[in-house]
Sequence to fold (753 residues):
Amino acid sequence: MPDHAANGQPSRLTGFLQSLGGKGGVFAAGLGVTVLVAILCLARPGWLAYQDLKLYDELARNHRPGGHGDLPVIVDIDEASLAAYGQWPWPRYRIALLLSRLRQLGSRAVGLDMLLAEPDRTSPRVVVEQLRRDLKVEAAVTGLPEALRDYDQVLADVLRQGPFVLGYYFEFPPSAAPGAKPAAPCPLPPLRLAVQSGPGAAPLAESLVGAAWPVCPLPRLLAAAPGAGFFNIVPDADGILRRCPLLVALDGKAYPSLALATVLEAYGVREAVARTTAGGLASLTLRGQALGERVVPLDASGMLLIDYRGPGGSFPRVSAADVLADRVPAEGLAGKIVFVGTSAAGLGDLRASPLDQAMPGVEVHATIADMLVTGGFLHRPDWALGAELLALCLVGVLSAALLAVTGALALLAPFAALAAGVWYGAAALLRQGVFLSPLGPLLVLAANFTALTFLKFWREERQKRFLHGAFSRYVSPAVVSRIVSNRQALTLSGEEREITILFSDVRGFSTLSENLAPTQVADLLQGYFTPMTGIITAHMGTLDKLIGDAIMAFWNAPVDVPGHRALALRAALAMRDELDRLNPRFKATFGLAIKAGLALHCGVVRVGNFGTKDLFDYTVIGDAVNLCSRLEGLTKVYGTRLLVTDSLMADDDGEFVFEEIDVVRVKGKRRPVTIHTVRTAAEYLAGEAQFEAARQARALYAARRFAEAATAYQALWERHNRRRYALFAVRSRELALSPPPDDWDGVYEPRNR
Fold:
């Protein structure tokens, strides 16, 4: 059978099936998603920055730098110390005793994580003055050495003797309260710093975090101490402390943090070099005989990424009470860098880190000092953003390509492997001290999987709708619903199955169309084909093709259609009746009426896609198709509108009445086939006398009683004027005059059919 429509183009069904492929759109969409994610990562909105921080925390929790150095020790003003020596703040003489004891124990340097900004109100001299001012009482302290009358002076004398570093605090704009700036500046010791500036580098002070003003220790304490450093700890927006400024700018000068100042004091470092680039500060190099050369990587604004050695309690702690009570052996603090701070909950110096929700702030300074001494740093290099974008693009392109060539479920394993590779790659880099955020690649992976899976789902739904709409032009909505819900039932690779075939052809259409303009011919065919194909699809049939003025359809493919014989019979009878309703309109519009023949046959055929690799058609081929086509041509011979073979009788439950017409052997066939015409039970009852007379005449013919058969058919012809009656009357008279041989089987062989 031909696999093209009358116009020589592939059938609609073929074009539809060819359009189901195409993966370039999915890949292009994946590239688009990748570009959008890259733009989003560059814009870095707040919610995305928050997710990036949380990913860093997760990496940090699984990252261990391999312990810490043995130098930092924390002298803790803990609950036991407060219980033994009273509430905070302690008198300055007690702090002096604590520091003096630490110096005696051989501490290399001591950093004070506390602000001593106000005069000690417990000093005897201060108490006497307050009594005189407030109560008008003249009091005197007797028996007390002059040196102990002012506790701030006692502390200043101790500070002057040892390697001590005071802490102070910076106020930063815009959080600095208006009007709170001190009236007179304090003499903070800046960091003696050389600057190596690269091309296009701005002045160092412009790169650093700039302070509004400092909150300083008492001037005489500051003047007495060998060093000082700020102890500001700047958490991120979510309250987690991940980085701290190592340098802060004030009035064009750079000032060190408490940890940095303490390490400088401990190792006698007198030379520091800041390297700046066009992007800002890059590193700080410390040089000292005891420390060697230490290159500290910083971000553009002088912030140091903190490589936590563990949760709170990772560094050795000594209770301040034990130091004051002389319960600490000399070797416990000899040569150590000591930070004096507090872990007592009531003093509020607890910080949240990626590893601990309540880490004493003094441990942060100890961690930074340990990093400076051991050289174990985390840093985010200048090329980090470029590397992250490159990784994002590579993952985006790869994931888009994978999604374009396979389904979502099959991608779970490779996508999980990609995600794991990104994650563990970032973790491995972090162990080497380099932080590259995995957020971009993971985000594009998730976005591509989500967006492209949604796109594929949307396309699938669109294809289902298209499938439903396209197939509805060929098969019934019920069949389409079954195809859409069960794709496995739609076998397009070709299979053998039993189907019922219908052929219909307009008789003498070439002659009829000679009197019509081409536009009228097209309008006539459209007016004929539209209701006829609608009847076929309404009865769950599949329209194969339109060939000129002919229709080919079949039932029971591409999906099973129970009772397909009966459905085909109903469709054929409905098409016959519909043509009777159409002809008056055709007569009025075109000046002619249409006559059409219908044939039905049921048999096993091959159904599927046939043609070439590039051009194919979903159709049926086989002997049964050829037989049905020949059978339709016999409707002209017998003058009947519908012929069927006895294969259509299998599904009949009394709904139809079959009238045997003849036994024929069509051209190209060796086996004869019995053909019938069909009517409904109601039609049979309306013309029962005629149909019964025709049955009896057929019985006489089959019994070789040709003369009687000729008389019976002649009477039927004269009464009802049916072509087949005249045909059999003539044939019976011929057989009566020239009887057939004894082995005559009653098979008629039409000429050219």
Summary: The two ends are 17 Å apart (CA to CA).
